[in-house]
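Researcher: Quick sanity check before group meeting.
Model: Go ahead. Protein one:
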Amino acid sequence: MVLLHDIRRYVRGSLRISEPLAAYTSFGLGGPADYFVEPASKEDLVHAVRYFQRQGFPYLLIARGSNMLVSDEGYRGAVISLDKALSNIHIEGTPSPGAEGRVCVEAGVQVSSFVEFCVERALQGPEILAGTSGTIGGWAALNLRTPGCALTERLVEVEILRNGEIVMLHKTGQAAGERQIDLNGDLILATIFALPPGDKQELLRGRRKWLIRHNAAEPVNLAGSGKIFRDLPGQPAAALIERAAIRRRTNGCARISERNANFIVTDRGAKAADVHALIDLMKREVRKQCNVVLELQVKLVGFDPGTHLQTI
């Protein structure tokens, strides 16, 4: 049984009751969470997670909410914000001139902040993420399961919370493409990258190039999430959705993006149910027309019994 005075005893940060989640997601949709917890530090966050685990109480970890759709009914459980608890980024030690820099990035740091930090210090690699939304924790959770990004090869350690204990995972294997870190539903606390030095002016140009590329390929300045479905090897989900002839389809105040068919954007007055119906349509029609089963990348929250999810 979860009691308010117990939560306040374990968590030094703020606690709110029946907090609407629309303000915490890029869709701008979603009903209230029973409890909304903002831990003040990493230690505070660990205490909160351990408490809810002991109680067997559903909880959800949220950062920028850029890859989640919360139901109109909300979430029956506790939502734990990572924004204040996991917001630190720093270089470990004092790197020698020309040597790799080990950059420790906590999971709640925005990808854009990580890119800016590294470019300013002439560390090469993260500039390819310019224009990418979400947080480093969400990016790592996605890319460790779906290798392919060159920057993933530069991720050498991950600090996680597993069964209530903080554990450091190290890359295994020798050859490029074989090194991996296995996550089993663990909470990512921080990531450590080994980044080579680069020329700052070249990195600034590279960041601008990737920013333009991302902005041209994805809808910007519109309410929505990241990609709805995972891309398949050699088969971008957007291309499959276009083949299914449902690009620009609408439901209520939500529509499949004209710029990229793997995105859903919303107008004022949209409901989470509008978006959910479009997701069902996309998945159903691609299976029917292309004989391909798409895998969701966006997290559905509150549509099924609550489970532990880590979001971007």
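Researcher: Fine. The other one?
Model: Protein two, sequence then structure:
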Amino acid sequence: MIALTPTLSASAIRSLAGEDPGSVEEFQNLLTKTGEKGWGDLPIGTLMGHLGFLLEGAPYLPGTLDADGPEKCRVDLKTMDCVTYFENILGVARVIKKKKKTFNDLVKEVTYTRYRDGKLNGYVSRLHYTADWIEDNIKKGVVRDVTGEMGGVELKISDTYMSTHPDSYPQLKGNAKLIDAIKKIEDTINSKSRLYIPKGDIEDAEEKMLTGDIIAVATSKEGLDYAHTGMIYRDHKGEARFLHESTKYGMVTLDKTISEYVNSVKTHIGITVVRPLEPTA
């Protein structure tokens, strides 16, 4: 069982969180609740489900990683988009599993999963595309792709959106050097393929999904691999529901089953499922 973390002073919170003391307080709340409930002894996926559900209602806010200034690992537990939501939950779970206790430990874990080879080296080191995030975190031993075990088939990747829409990204706008670097990364991503479960087959695959499985929703939108992300949460009826930072509801939401959710959006074509692994160190 994880020991309760001592309450931090206001000054300590400010020094750790900079402009976002609320995130450090939320982090402390998650660790305290985990200690009280004994969740630290659970499998990491189950732990992620509990942590993710505790953030139900947290507001949706895009673009939190693209503030002015040099690239740094920003961690905001109060307002998130669909990617930073599951990234944060995975990071907190890994902190708990490693028996760490500080917000700085969380930043280190998110840095490890958010950046190529776990190293922050400027804007292009961030794993902007979900297919790239999956590939890199499989290599690092953070997750494994279980899509094939659920009947997955090949998904051709054609990521071009960032290099063809640079004005949509503050760091890329007018920066030919960065655009070229992103284009090279896209070419590398597109040289490989992933597996996905087509939307018509998801319902049959639901029985194999576990709480905490990370879901990447594949899309038919041009230039993109996946359009949305979230997690599986098995409810009291055993249904595999989609727990995600919802753009529709504007907050973290425990939604309908994953098959119902994907089938409700025309441009969603299926899902890739990756399972978190217990950290080894």
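Researcher: One line on it for the slide.
Model: The CA atoms of residues 159 and 187 lie 8 Å apart.
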